[in-house]
């Protein structure tokens, strides 16, 4: 899960199959990278996606189209990427690159400035485009395709063996592994626009806030706390598991049990299970901290 600190853009998960079918029929540079048989299979699956057998065939068709895109010869990708940039530049108001939630023309042209011949330019036509305002969050499901495009955020991850790349990166790519590991579901992105007030904390100031971002992962949730300037305090009840805190703004102090430490922007703290946490602001600006925590059901404070 990533919580936006600034305006933030990402691609996350496969977009609805009907939108992919639309792009296959209306965007020639994309169509030139996908075989006739697979394009017809995507359209057929789109027509029958409401049925149980249709959902299965939709996943198969989506995987075929995605695989053909990623495994196309680099020279073909380069040539088609150049065509896509010309296509987007010459038709800024054309509906070919438009879907229900907006037009992708500007996004493709913006990304082409950084990755002009990258297969990721076509991935934009397969994936959901997500825009977050500061304080909003995106949860990325296990084995869900995603790319962070711009902005700053605080991210917390469950345990992961690796990161597999196939585009928008100059690092090592592993296309075959990525193709094999994805779920090929076209689900709407899991976005938290309004986090839940966190109630297990005592605040000294009405201007202070603490909100909870509930993730789909059993390993963690995230809390964002903003303390009013100049000596506002927060007392957190003991968590039934460990917690990690990071300060992104302001300064003050933190106390865990009998131990106290100063806080400044960039400082990171670990608190063990069963410990109450005390925080106080001392700066002229609000003190902002994010913390991830894990509640262990079988935790026993006497151990």
UniProtKB/TrEMBL annotation:
GO terms for cellular component: cytosol. It catalyses: D-mannose 6-phosphate = D-fructose 6-phosphate. One of its GO terms (molecular function) is zinc ion binding. SUPFAM superfamilies: RmlC-like cupins (SSF51182). GO terms for biological process: carbohydrate metabolic process; GDP-mannose biosynthetic process. It is an enzyme of class 5 (isomerase). It comes from the Eukaryota. Its EC number is 5.3.1.8. Keywords: Isomerase. Pathway: Nucleotide-sugar biosynthesis; GDP-alpha-D-mannose biosynthesis; alpha-D-mannose 1-phosphate from D-fructose 6-phosphate: step 1/2. InterPro entries: Man6P_Isoase-1, Mannose-6-P_Isomerase, PMI_typeI_hel, RmlC-like_jellyroll, RmlC_Cupin_sf. Its cofactor is Zn(2+). Residues 34-127 form the Phosphomannose isomerase type I helical insertion domain. Belongs to the mannose-6-phosphate isomerase type 1 family. Involved in the synthesis of the GDP-mannose and dolichol-phosphate-mannose required for a number of critical mannosyl transfer reactions. This is Mannose-6-phosphate isomerase. It comes from Aspergillus nomiae NRRL (strain ATCC 15546 / NRRL 13137 / CBS 260.88 / M93).
């Amino acid at each position: 899960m990533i919580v936006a600190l600034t305006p933030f853009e990402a691609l996350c998960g496969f977009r609805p199959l009907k939108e992919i079918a639309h792009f296959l029929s209306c965007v020639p540079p994309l169509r030139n990278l996908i075989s006739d048989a697979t394009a017809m299979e995507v359209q057929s699956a789109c027509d029958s996606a409401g049925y149980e057998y249709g959902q299965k065939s939709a996943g198969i068709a989506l995987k075929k189209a995605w695989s053909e895109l990623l495994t196309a010869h680099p020279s073909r990708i380069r040539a088609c990427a150049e065509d896509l940039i010309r296509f987007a530049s010459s038709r800024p108001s054309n509906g070919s690159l438009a879907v229900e939630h907006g037009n992708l023309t500007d996004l493709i042209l913006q990304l082409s400035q950084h990755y002009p011949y990258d297969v990721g330019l076509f991935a934009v036509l397969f994936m959901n485009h997500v825009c977050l305002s500061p304080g909003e969050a995106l949860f990325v499901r296990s084995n869900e395709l995603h790319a962070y495009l711009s902005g700053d955020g605080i991210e917390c991850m469950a345990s992961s063996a690796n990161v597999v790349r196939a585009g928008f990166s100059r690092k090592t790519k592993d296309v075959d592994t990525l193709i094999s590991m994805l779920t090929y579901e076209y689900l709407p992105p899991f976005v938290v626009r309004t986090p839940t007030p966190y109630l297990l904390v005592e605040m000294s100031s009405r201007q202070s806030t603490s909100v909870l971002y509930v993730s789909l992962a059993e390993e963690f949730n995230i809390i964002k706390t903003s303390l009013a300037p100049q000596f506002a305090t927060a007392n957190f009840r003991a968590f039934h598991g460990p917690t990690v805190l990071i300060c992104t703004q302001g300064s003050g102090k933190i106390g865990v049990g009998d131990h106290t430490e100063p806080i400044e922007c960039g400082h990171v703290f670990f608190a063990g299970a069963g410990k109450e946490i005390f925080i106080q602001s001392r700066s002229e600006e609000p003190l902002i901290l994010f913390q991830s925590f894990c509640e262990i059901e079988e935790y026993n404070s006497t151990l």
